[in-house]
Write a structure and sequence with these properties.
Length: 107
């Protein structure tokens, strides 16, 4: 458990230094959401959120992968953060779509 948490943190630090690997690394770390160690799984949630905020072009692929990972998430606390995160992302996408359609209507 503690080893995985240290691994997730180290990978996160490497991704900050080498951002071109973020798209590849994030999908590998999503597998750790099912970890029984809640702390390492929460580190993954925060990492995934940061990647999505930093690289919006990766958002849809990551969200799809997160939804497929849901059955494997064991920790109730991680599930809560997962649902809150996905819900906020869906609201953000709807808001952006609504703003874009309003802009089209104005033209």
């Amino acid at each position: 458990g503690e080893y995985r948490q240290l691994l997730v943190q180290a990978i996160h630090q490497c991704t900050v230094k080498f951002p071109d690997v973020a798209g590849e690394v994030v999908h590998q770390l999503i597998d750790y959401l099912g970890d029984t160690n809640t702390n390492s799984a929460l580190d993954v949630v925060h990492f995934v959120r940061e990647v999505i905020e930093t690289y919006p072009n990766l958002r849809q692929g990551i969200l799809d992968r997160l939804v497929n990972t849901l059955p494997f998430i064991q920790s109730p606390k991680v599930r809560f953060f997962f649902f809150a995160f996905v819900r906020s992302e869906k609201k953000l996408i709807k808001m952006k779509t609504g703003i874009a359609s309003c802009a089209v209507d104005i033209e």
